[in-house]
Amino acid sequence: MMIQNKRIIASILFVLISFVCVAQIPGSGPPPPGPPPPRGFPIDGGLLYGVAFAILYGIKKLRVKKDS
Rounded distance, CA 9 to CA 17, Å? Predict the structure, then answer.
């Protein structure tokens, strides 16, 4: 390319970049955060009963297996 063509392309790119910079609204940041997510499934007595049941069931299976 000739030097004149390179200067024209560089000038056009400079003007386009300037338009992009002017299009930015000063002071506008990201949008505010949304509300917090809902609470998860509560871990309460049901979990304790499940663990106790699993332990008792495991003990029963081990005793049956020893007797066989």
Answer: 12
